[in-house]
Amino acid sequence: NERHYGALQGLVKEDVEKGLYGHDPDLVQQWRRSWHTVPPLLDDDDPRRLDEIKAYANFCGGPERVPKGESLQQVAEFRILPFLQERLCPVLQQAATSRQQSTQTATTGTINPSPLMTPGGTGLVVAHANSLRALIGVICNVQQDALALKKLEALRLQTGVPLVLRFRQDLNSHPEMVQFQPCDIDGIPFLQGSSSSSSSSSRGLVPELPVYPLSSIPMKSIQPNTPTTTFLSTSTPTSSIRDYNNTASFIRTVPF
Predict the structure, then answer these.
(1) Three-class SS of residue 179?
(2) Could you report the per-residue pLDDT of 87-118, keeping only the tens digit for each?
(3) Which residues contact 65 (CB under 8 A, 6 or more apart)?
(4) How far apart are CA 191 and CA 215, in angstroms?
(5) Which of 55, 58, 121, 218 has the greatest number of CB atoms lying within 10 Å of its CB?
(6) Bridge partners for 249 per DSSP
(7) Could you write out the DSSP letters of every residue in 98-133?
(8) Alpha-carbon distance 154 to 121, whole Å?
(9) Which residue from 180, 168, 184, 169 is spatially nearest to 218, judged by alpha carbons?
(10) Tell me, what's the pLDDT at 173?
């Protein structure tokens, strides 16, 4: 679901940005773009709050757990990370295992059992733009990388433009401390030396946010026996996306 904008919930975005509701436009930008900043919370007696409690208390585990407003970091911690751990990664791992078993049956070679070398799976995720930004933030470990965080806060996901994010999951990590490693994609100019930042060097020539438009990626780069690849988009993907291996796709639905 979309991020909860607290007291801004239900207001017209353009009017809020212009200060027509009495909010400082600079603060509004922080509330919308920042990873850590929490928007003004709904009051307990706000009719919107009461309606949300009736609608979502059962889903959230009680009225007190229905959020009054969320920062992007809270979306990442309380909703995106559990989604990755409990839903997306198990599905991708299952797809990878099925393909690995098929490969073993069809060939006489052996498959490297290392978790970092195990071929990834293919998936599709449909979500709001802020949920996708939080998802990118978790996979790219932005809380440990100031430059990646700065880029994420400036990132705007366009409607109808599929994006690709490839990553590895450390299967040996503790279930409550799952580690992700973003990976770059063959054929992207960055791998040909277009950047020389120290941060990128420490990542093994992987930029801080290796998220690319699908149209910029050579189709031969999306092959079996590669890490999990993530397509990020803001509209329904074309049917050709189903033909790619090692892919998780994300689709934005409603912008704020």
Answers:
(1) strand
(2) 888 888 887 777 777 766 666 555 554 444 45
(3) 57
(4) 17
(5) 121
(6) 124, 231
(7) HHHHHHHHH-SS-----TTTS----EEEEE-HHHHH
(8) 29
(9) 184
(10) 61
